[in-house]
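Troubleshooting: if your tokenizer reports a length mismatch, compare your output against this known-good record of 110 residues.
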Amino acid sequence: MAKEVPQLGFDGNEPNYKDHWKGMPSYEQGNAALPDSTLHVHFATKEDRAAFMKLIGQIINPETRYIWHPKSDKAVLKDKRYVDVPEAEDDSPENDGREYVDTEDGDLEI
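Known-good structure output:
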């Protein structure tokens, strides 16, 4: 007979995610991906849609589900990956796991 594996959260107790997420990197989305407002626009004719496209400078076809205005380029993520960086020994910017470059005026840039 197989050993029963308890299901997190289904035993009536709230799971302690902090125990399961030890060592995971922190992440903050911020509001970068959230729109300030959303507007649904309906077009009575193809000509009306064409006039609107000309006005905003973007292409909208019958399959278009949404647009960003001003136009936002799609992020290319297929060449991105997460890498493990060693933990910093102190809180100085030089030891936060990112690469910094000294500028001509002596400041640090990422």
